[in-house]
From TrEMBL, chain A:
Topology of the protein relative to the lipid bilayer: Single-pass membrane protein
Keyword Membrane: yes
Annotated keywords: Cell membrane, Electron transport, Heme, Iron, Membrane, Metal-binding, Transmembrane, Transmembrane helix, Transport
Membrane-traversing stretches: 16-35
UniProt keyword DNA-binding, yes or no: no
Family per record: Belongs to the NapC/NirT/NrfH family.
Protein name in the entry: Cytochrome c-type protein
Domain NapC/NirT cytochrome c N-terminal: 16-181
Compartments in which it is found: Cell membrane
Automatic annotation (TrEMBL), chain B:
Places the protein is found: Cell envelope
Pfam family, one: Cytochrom_c3_2
Keywords: Electron transport, Heme, Iron, Metal-binding, Transport
The protein's name in its UniProt record: Tetrahaem cytochrome domain-containing protein
Main localisation: other
Gene3D superfamilies reported for this sequence: Flavocytochrome C3, Chain A (1.10.1130.10)
Signal peptide as annotated in the record: none
Stretches assigned to the Tetrahaem cytochrome domain: 60-143
Length: 198, 152
């Protein structure tokens, strides 16, 4: 063992170089693993996200939603299709690594609480990405959407008229109830603290 | 040795950039050529009116609605009427949908949108105001502070 290690070190000359190689290999391996489609997919399925107990509420409410399979045609949107940007591969992966890591850290350090999620709901524009919605509902974004629903027509025209401007709004600014069947507030609320809320 | 340090440096920078990107990934939506239908009053005048009729509803304010989005087209603000519940419900669905949002208050039958006596009979503006502070209609007769928080 010792001789083997020694021979590697003498080969690359010096301790620093040895550490460098180890780090570089680790980094490259992680990158390859992350970029490999299989892992990207496996860790993007609702089963994976829902496998942590934190996400139990989210998975259950999701399953009662149109987007979670509660529809006649049996389609399902994956968690990541709404919760990660779908506009470019780099955005998708980097956001995935960062927010996934955050979730893992909160999981193992036990910092998670329903209350935090509850409070954070008002920031929904930051964790639900319009590009995700648009990847399926393309017609709404490109203005080709045909419908007899006057409310939808008017409000989506409004959305498009603001898009890209300083006062841009997102799909979830209006559609607060998609994905989890509008049940999140109900499920996460702590009735003991409720009356102290402003 | 030097080469390796350079490689390491590049990798470190790459990974920092990657993580930074992940923390700051904001969508870049492109402006569109779509506009809302023209109104009798020019857009600049409508913006000006927002000073006289400010929105007290944080959510509506965030969405940046113009007067006409809620009131329809008009020539003179004096002719504007307060909204009926039907008009609120063009965006908020129906009373059932609204009641579902506060259904955690159902247990004590104090859901403001589906309560003990009034059920779905009340006008939204009996409680929710847009340009004045909101009130709670139930408070005319009950101490509502033990039931529900203040009206948004």
């Amino acid at each position: 063992m010792k001789t083997k290690k020694f021979s590697i070190r003498s080969y690359v000359k010096g301790k620093a170089a040895f550490i460098t190689i180890i780090l570089a290999t680790a980094f490259v391996t992680i990158m390859i693993a992350l970029f490999s489609t299989k892992v990207i997919h496996a860790t993007g399925k609702s089963e994976f996200c829902g496998s942590c107990h934190e996400m139990n509420t989210f998975k259950k409410t999701y399953e009662r939603d149109i987007h979670g399979g509660a529809n006649s045609v049996g389609f399902k949107a994956d968690c990541v299709q709404c919760h990660l940007p779908q506009d470019s591969q780099i955005d998708f992966l980097s956001t995935k690594v960062v927010s996934g890591t955050k979730e893992v850290i909160t999981h193992f350090s036990g910092q998670f609480s329903d209350e935090k999620y509850y409070q954070n709901r008002k920031n929904r524009e930051d964790f639900v990405y319009s590009s995700g919605c648009i990847s399926c509902h393309q017609d709404i974004d490109n203005g080709k959407f045909k419908t007899d629903n006057q409310k939808a027509k008017k409000m989506h025209t409004y959305y498009l008229s603001k898009k890209g401007s300083k006062q841009a709004i997102e799909c979830v600014s209006c559609h607060t109830n998609v994905g989890h069947n509008g049940e999140l507030r109900h499920k996460l609320i702590d009735m003991d603290k409720y009356l102290d809320e402003k | 040795m030097k080469k390796l340090l350079i490689v390491l440096g590049v990798l470190v920078i790459a990974s920092i950039a990657f993580v930074y990107e992940g923390m700051n990934a904001k969508e870049q939506s492109k402006e569109t050529a779509v506009n809302m239908p023209a109104t009798t009053l020019p857009a600049s005048k409508l913006t000006e009116l927002q000073k006289d009729y400010p929105s007290k509803n944080d959510q509506h304010k965030k969405l940046g609605f113009d007067c006409v989005t809620c009131h329809g087209d008009f020539k003179d603000p004096k002719e504007v009427l307060p909204l009926q519940k039907e008009q609120c419900l063009t965006c908020h669905g129906d009373y059932k949908k609204v009641a579902k949002r506060t259904s955690f208050l159902d247990k004590k039958e104090v859901n403001p949108h589906d309560g003990f006596h009034h059920k779905d009979q009340l006008d939204c503006a009996d409680c929710h105001r847009e340009h004045k502070p909101s009130v709670n209609y139930c408070a005319n007769c009950h101490d509502t502070k033990v039931w529900m928080k203040s009206t948004p």
